[in-house]
Amino acid sequence: xxxxxxxxxxxxxxxIALIKYWGNRDAKLRIxxxxxxxxxxxxxxxxxxxxxxxxxxxxxLFLEGHQVAGTAQxxxxxxxxxxxxMAGFALYARIQSHNNFPTGxxxxxxxxxxxxxxxxxxxxxxxxxSQRDLSRLARTGSGSACRSIxxxxxxxxxxxxxxxxxxxxxxxxxxxxxxxxIAVVSQDPKHTSSEDGHVLxxxxxxxTTRISDTPGxxxxxxxxxxxxxxxxxxEVVELDSNLMHAVIMTxxxxxxxxxxxxxxVIQTVKEIRTQGTAVCxxxxxxxxxxxxxxxxxxxYISAQLNQIPGVQKVLTTHPGGPARCIIDEDESITSKxxx
Amino acid sequence: xxxxxxxxxxxxxxxIALIKYWGNRDAKLRIxxxxxxxxxxxxxxxxxxxxxxxxxxxxxLFLEGHQVAGTAQxxxxxxxxxxxxMAGFALYARIQSHNNFPTGxxxxxxxxxxxxxxxxxxxxxxxxxSQRDLSRLARTGSGSACRSIxxxxxxxxxxxxxxxxxxxxxxxxxxxxxxxxIAVVSQDPKHTSSEDGHVLxxxxxxxTTRISDTPGxxxxxxxxxxxxxxxxxxEVVELDSNLMHAVIMTxxxxxxxxxxxxxxVIQTVKEIRTQGTAVCxxxxxxxxxxxxxxxxxxxYISAQLNQIPGVQKVLTTHPGGPARCIIDEDESITSKxxx
Lengths: 339, 339
Known about the structure:
Chain A is of the alpha+beta class. Helices cover 34% and strands 27% of the residues of chain A. Chain A binds chain B through residues 205-206, 208-210, 213, 238-239, 242-243, 245-247, 249-250, 252, 254, 256, 258-264, 266-267, 270, 310, and chain B through 205-206, 208-210, 213, 238-239, 242-243, 245-247, 249-250, 252, 254, 256, 258-264, 266-267, 270, 310.
C-alpha cells in the first residue's frame, strides 16, 4: 500500500509526422511497420491530470469534463495498468484530460493525449523513468504518442520489440524555425480511427512497397532537417504523405480521410510553391492539412489558407518541446521536467 | 499514284477504363505495362473526316473547326504515315475532328479521337483491315484508342510487341445494361496530358506493385462482367482507380488530377452505396468522375450527382458499339462497318 498519493498534471504537444507511421508489426505492443519522423507542435497541447484515489473502484476518465467509457477508457486503463505494475500498487485513478485543439481529426490528439497521460501517470505514481522509457510506455497507449515525449524534431526508431521501439530528439526546437499552419477543414471526429486504420494497412497491395521504401525517405528527411534544406524536406514530406494516403485508399475496405476542402488546400499549396514561396503540405489520418513553411512566411501562408472555401480556421504552431509534468503535493506545486 | 481518292468519316465512342492503363513497356509503340478493361460510351462520340488531297503539301488538322499544329498534328501525321505506308501512297490529308463532349478532361477524348481517325483514314485509303489490326493501329496513336475500336465491354491484352497488343470485345453492349453517369466538374484541359503522365508512371515507387497486382484485378473484373455481379465490379473498379491515382500522386514529379469537387463526388457515391443503392466511381486521368450504376438507377444517381456543388453537368452514357466509318464517294454515301 502506497501512503502518499500524488495528483500530477501532464502537458504534451501533438506532433506532425513528416515521415508517417501507418501499420504495425506488432499491434498489441504497437511496434510499427516502419520508422517515422515528426515535429512537436507548440501552441497546441493536451493537459491531463491523473489522481490515484483509494476511494475509487475503477478508473474514471473525463475528456473535456465529460466522463467517457468504452474503448477510450480501456486504452487508458491498459496504460495505467503498466504504470501500476511498475510502481507496485493497485489503486485506480481519476483522469481528466483537455485539448486546446480539435480532437480526432488528424491533429494527433491521441499522440498528445497518451504522452500527457504517460508523464502524468508516472509523476503521480512517483516513477522516475528515462525519456526513452517514457517514450516506450507512451507508445503502448498510442503509437505516435512516443514521438510527443521528446522535444523538437523527433525520430521514432521502429525497433523490433518493446525495448527497441522508442523515439528520440534528432534536432532541438531551436534548430529550424519552421511553422506548421494547420488548415482546419473539419472538426468532426473521423469515421475510422487511426487505431482501426493501422489494422487495415496490411490489406493494401501497396503497403509492403511503402514500408520497404521507407529507409530512403527517412534518410532524406533526416538530411533535410540537418541541413535545413526546405526544398528537399518538401519533396520527401509530400511524397511520404501521398504514399500513406495511397495505402489508406487502397486498403480493404478502402478509407478516404480527404474531403473536398483538403484537396483545395493541397492545390493552393502547390500554386503558392509554383509562385516561388517555400511551402509544403502533409496530411495525417484526417481531413485537416498541415501546411509547413519557414517562419518568415507564416502570415502570408496563413492568410492564403484562410481564403480557401471550406477552411474554417488556421492554427499556427511552432516546433514544440517535450512532454512534461507538474506534481501537486499538498498546497505546493513542483514543476518537474519529464526528461 | 492513286486515282480515286476517298473522303471518309469515322465515328468512335470514348471508353471508360474499368481496369486502367497507366504506363508503357514500350512508349514508342504504346505497348502498355499492364492489360486493361473498358466499356465504350454510347452517347459520346468523336466524328473525324479524313480526305487525302493531292493539292496538299502537308497534313492539315482541324479540331472543332480550328487548325491545330504542334504535338497533336505530329501524332496524327505519324498515324497517317502508317496508313499511307500500308496503302502505298504518299498523299497528305485534311483531317477535321469534332467531339460532342469536353476534350482533355479525363473522358478519353484521345481514345475516341484516334479510334475515329484510324477507321476514317483506313476507309479513305481503301484499306480493309481486321478489327484486330485496326485496334493495333489505333493503339499506336493513343494507347487506349485500341479499346474504342471493338464494341461493348473490351479487354486490351497488353501483349509484348506490336502484333500481340490489341483489344477485343469480351461482352457485347447488350450483355449488361450499365450506365456511366459522368459527373463533369471541369471542362478545362488538364495540366499534364495522359501522354506525359504515362512517362512518369515508372518514377512512382508504387508502379511495379500496381503492375504485378494487375492480373488478379483483370480476372476479377472479367468475372464480374461475365456474371453481371455489380458488387464485385464496384470493388475492383474502385480499387483499380485508386491504385492508378496512387501511382500518379507519388510519381516524380507527383501529379494530382483530382479537384475538390472530384472528392465531393467520391464521397456522395460512397454515401449512396452505404444507403443500399448499387453504384461505384472510377476516375481516368482528369478531374471528372465516372459514376457507374445499373440502368434502372440512372435518374436517381444523375439527380444526386447534379446536386453536388462543383458538378457542372452529368453526361449519361450506355455501353457503346464499335468504331465505324462512312465512305463518301461522289454523291453517294456508303455506310460500312469497320469490323
